[in-house]
Structure formats: structure tokens, C-alpha cells
Design brief:
NAD(P)-bd_dom_sf, binds NADP nicotinamide-adenine-dinucleotide phosphate, globular, oxidoreductase activity, Related to short-chain dehydrogenase
Length: 348
Amino acid sequence: MATHAEFNNTTAATEVAATFGSQIKGRTVVITGISPEGIGAATALAVASQEPANLILASRTESKLATVVSDISEKYPAVPIKSIILDLASSDSIKSAAAEINSVADHIDVLINNAGLTLKSRQPVKTPGGTTVDLQFSINHLGTFLFTSLLLPKVIAAGANAPKGSTRVVNVGSHAHRLSPIRFSDYALYRAPYDVPEAERPPTGVSDAMIRSIDGYPGFIGYGQSKTANILHAMELKRRLEKAGANAIAVAVHPGTIDTGLSRDLDEGGRKAIEGTAVNGVFKTLDQGAATTIVGAFDPKLAEVEVEGPLYLADCQYRTVLGAHAADPVAAERLWAETEKMLEITCL
Ligand SMILES: NC(=O)c1ccc[n+]([C@@H]2O[C@H](COP(=O)([O-])OP(=O)(O)OC[C@H]3O[C@@H](n4cnc5c(N)ncnc54)[C@H](OP(=O)(O)O)[C@@H]3O)[C@@H](O)[C@H]2O)c1
């Protein structure tokens, strides 16, 4: 089902933003993960081009954030931009970033959870609730979940006065979700990809390059698990918002394959495996890479799309997920409950 049939894998975010200019003008938008050579900066630039009321940019490296803010301000001096330091690996940083945002914004129309990373070496971390998890899961999912939970009252507040379905949380997931279901029995990836219950194994057809381990650590499987979590989080959040009667929806997107800082920790083999996922071997530009996020955040027609599973987009169009495990309502509910326990919080 196409909401804007003219958009495809080469459409640029700036073009999409111009199409949805009236949805962006006057709105308060929060975006995480802002670095000069990343999708987050391209997303922020596209939003800034359409006169948002407030652009709140949260990321972990102050100097990179400052460079992006200065670039955007130079191009769009009238857009009010607030920079926030946010390290999704630290509960304290997440809480203080969320408190700062909550103190300056009385509502949040769109929250774009774009920050994320990949790792090639094992870095287990203990959650506040005592579960040991992979650092990719901790940053990409747990940090994003906590940050979202703390901002949710302001998202719900925005929805109270907004057209139906225009208030949104967008999780930047990935087609890499197909690499792994949630490893409920082994969040830290101590066991080999197939040495877990059947429902937690990579589905048939995943290439050896993606399943490979370095020093016993299957990094891409860990990344895949974290991206499945981003999608299940969006799916369950959408369901719970609806159940709570809130006028807000949650969307997950796959940006495409873009040459960014994401591969910085990978070895040559890892980078080659990523290159292999680019359509016809061609990377999207940053502007093209941000396009699907802008559709997810602002296309008014998405509010009318009714789906059983996650509202998932790729190449600017609604798509079914590539792995059924990322559309499983039982897994989504279980992940939510286990995430709350890991973080020692209750959300919605
Ligand atoms: N590039 C692709 O082909 C591709 C494909 C599918 C999905 N994605 C997804 O797209 C999103 C953006 O990635 P990208 O490709 O633009 O990569 P990127 O250039 O590395 O950008 C990731 C951003 O997240 C930030 N970040 C990383 N760890 C963080 C933490 N602990 N706390 C706060 N911020 C943190 C990074 O900040 P620093 O630079 O300061 O570390 C950076 O600003 C990610 O969620 C990624 O999984 C990318």
C-alpha cells in the first residue's frame, strides 16, 4: 500500500519535507543521534527546512552536535534549536536529558529515536534490574525505551490538541532486524547464534557473513536483536497508546544502506557485509537516507493505515517486516514487560 506512490528509494528527505511542509511548520520535534556524517543530521536539516517551532537535538558528542547545530543555524537562522547532551548508555544521562527537554517543551509533536550503534566486540552490561545484556541492546533499545518513556507525557500532551495520528514516535530500526529475534534466554549473546531455543535463532537464509562471530561474539546478531527490539517497541507502543486513548502513533523505519559513522567499529569483513546490503551496491546519500524517517514522522496518510503488526516503512513506503519475529505480538508484549523489569520502571 503506497501513501505517496511517487516516493521511492532515491527520494530525498528535503523533498519529502517540502511535500509535508504544513505538517512540520510550527511543530516541536526531538531527534536523537546527531553527528555531521549521520542520518540524524540529515533528518534535522530536512525538518529545519520547513519552519518547525522548535528543533531539539540530543546526542552524546558535544562537538559533533555543535557542528550540526551551527550548520543548520547558518542555513535556517530563524529555527530555534536546543542542543541536549544524551548518552543512551547511561540512565543518569538519559534522565537528565529528558528532564531538560521536559523543562523547555510543554509538548512534543514528534520524537525521532535515531541514535544507534554497531559493535564488533562483546561488551556486556548489567541493567538496573540485574539482567546482563549486550551493549548494542542496551544503547539501541533500553536507552531508547527509557528516553521515550520519560518524554511520553509530553508526546501524549501534544496529541490532545493535534489532528488524528499526527503526533508520533519514530524508531529508526533496520532491515537488519531479520538477522535475529529477541534472545530472551541470552540477551548478552554468550551463546552461539544457533545454540539457543529455536524461536531465538536467525531465520533461514541469513548469510554466513552476518552470522559470523569474532572471538565468540556474533556482533551482527546483536545488532539485529537490537533493531528487532526497536520495531517491537514501536509496535507495542502504538498498541498501548491506542489502548490508553492517546492520540499518538508509533512507527518504525528502515533508512536504507548509507555510508555513515555506523560502521566505524567494524573490521573489513564487517564493512563488506554492510556494503552487500546496498541496493545494486549503491549507498543512499544522507539526504536519501533520512527520507523514510521524514515520511514516518510527517506523512498524514500514515495515520489512516491500519495494520496488525508494526507500522514499518522502507524506501518511503509501508512494508511488512522481513522477519516475522519482528511482528510477533507475544514477543512485543514480553519484550515490553522484560524491558520494564530491566530498567525498573513502569511505562503506560
Ligand atoms: N547507515 C545505515 O546504513 C543504516 C541502516 C539501517 C539502520 N540504520 C540506523 O540509522 C540510525 C542512524 O545511524 P547512522 O547510520 O546515521 O550512524 P551514525 O552516523 O553512527 O549515527 C548514529 C548516531 O547515534 C549516536 N549515538 C551512538 N551511540 C549513542 C549513545 N550511546 N547515546 C547517544 N547517541 C548515540 C552517534 O553519536 P556519536 O557520533 O557521537 O557516536 C550518532 O550521532 C541508527 O539507529 C542505525 O541503526 C542505519
